[in-house]
Amino acid sequence: MAQDRHNAQTKAQKARRLRDSVEWLVKNIFFLCGIVAVASVLFISVYLVISGLPAMLEIGVTDFLFGDTWDGKNGVYGILPFILTSFAGTGGAILIGVPVGVLTAMFLAKVANHRLAVVIRSAVSLLAGIPSVVYGLVGMVVLVPTVQKAFNLSSGANLLAAIVVLTVMILPSIINVAETALRAVPKEYEEASLALGATHTETIFRVSLPAARSGVATAIVLGVGRAIGEAMAIIMVSGNVANMPENLFTPVRFLTTAIASEMNYATVGSLWRESLFSIALVLFLFIMLINVALNLFVKNKKEG
Amino acid sequence: MNAILKTENLNLWYGQNHALKDINLEMPQNQVTALIGPSGCGKSTFLKTLDRMNDLVPTVKIEGKVLYRDQNIFDPQVDVTWLRRHVGMVFQKPNPFPMSIYDNIAYGPRTHGIRNKKQLDEIVEKSLRGAAIWDEVKDRLKKSALSLSGGQQQRICIARALAVEPDVLLMDEATSALDPISTSKIEDLIAELKKSYTIVIVTHNMQQATRVSDRCAFFLHGELVEADDTEKLFSVPKDKRTEDYITGRFG
């Protein structure tokens, strides 16, 4: 009798011990998975600083950031053309993409009937799923010759072509985020506006859009992030020459495409190669800034 | 009796649901008409029909007439924004826009084309005074309207409705989300407002109906059972169902 009770007890104890160790194991697996992301970010940040900073210091930070000539092969490392091109390309894409994207979002959220909205929305998600190399390919084969003919240029691969491709690429994220924000506007606001004798259009622009402004701002920042980090699609349409972006028809090279196009040629261990890592560091800092801005907007949204 | 709003054989369906059945009701000028009845009796639906806010429901079908100053509001010639300017509405839940107090009140006038700053200032002050909240907010007109208490927000909404200088004010259970003190403030306000406006309120609260209304209409299952002077309706109801309701036998 006593023996049986003792056996039962040890059995229960064993079961509990097993359960506890499974709990412990699972918890630690979760933890490890969580660590992967954190560790990657830390590793990349540290690696970029270690590999990018020395070259920047050797060249001189001012000469590097504000030098207007880049000629890696011959030891001239000024990345101002790349920085300005990245700004111009991103700015141009935002300038066209934000109005188009936000208006599309307004249409989807407030105007379009259900069936039409479904069609447009699936087209938008399809657009988001197209690999960037395909954007580049189509841009190269269709857009570049069109730009060349339309403006009678010697080459259609230039800043304008890159802006057009970037614009199309950032549309899905702008549309999705802005539409979600507009849908979240309480319908009481819109009813109040209509009850005051405002039209549907006045209501959308003067009540719904301002009420969704933090979401729309988030959409814009996401678009900026996407555009400034893009390399594959624009390397194929931008001309890839280290020019200052003097006008829309200048063949240009972006921060991203400068790294991608020269990494294979620069000798390992040379200042040229190391300076490419410095470009990556600059790009990384820009993207960090954008993320900080994004977090601020998201935080404001939660509080407001 | 001069009826500013009048319905004639008004029928309304939401899809298959016959929500209003042959309603004939007159709402006299500078009086408060209260619509009472149990939940789902059609009183809110009726109220929303008066400024065509039911147009927003896709499955709605309406027959009969609503006459605003002898003009049928369903006439294709009638501009619905014109109607809603003249027949304002205050909602059950206070719904100020997420903007400053000033911009809330100025929203309507601006929408209707008033841009002059001085003129807007005057309208804002007059409307806020009209809604008995000027003294409480005059020093913080630039603050968000959402920072106010529920009762204050509702008076901001009333002020916002007054700013477009309507003729009729519809109030859909405008005090049901408020505490007793705020409620009594708004009831006092209604008594004041009826001097210049014609008011139609929906209320669940029969004491409120007796306190604020001149006329009262009892709705049940989409029908208008009885409409009369409030005093008469509550003291000598003609219909058995009205009597049952006001004595609390159901509802």
Order of helices and strands of chain B: EEEHEEHEHHHHEHEHEEHH
- Count the DSSP helices of chain A: 12
CATH topology of chain B: Rossmann fold
Total number of strands of chain A: 2
Q: Biggest interface between protein chains, with counts per chain?
A: A-B, 18 and 25 residues
Q: List segments of chain B where confidence is low: pLDDT < 50 over at least 5 consecutive residues.
A: none
Relative strand content of chain A: under 5%
Question: Main beta sheet of chain B, described?
Answer: 6 strands, mixed
The domain tally of chain B reads: 1
Strand order of the largest sheet of chain A: 1-2
Q: Write down the overall geometry of chain A.
A: flat
Instruction: Report the CATH C-level class of the largest domain in chain A.
Output: Mainly Alpha
| Level-2 CATH architecture of the largest domain in chain A | Orthogonal Bundle
Helix content of chain A: over 70%
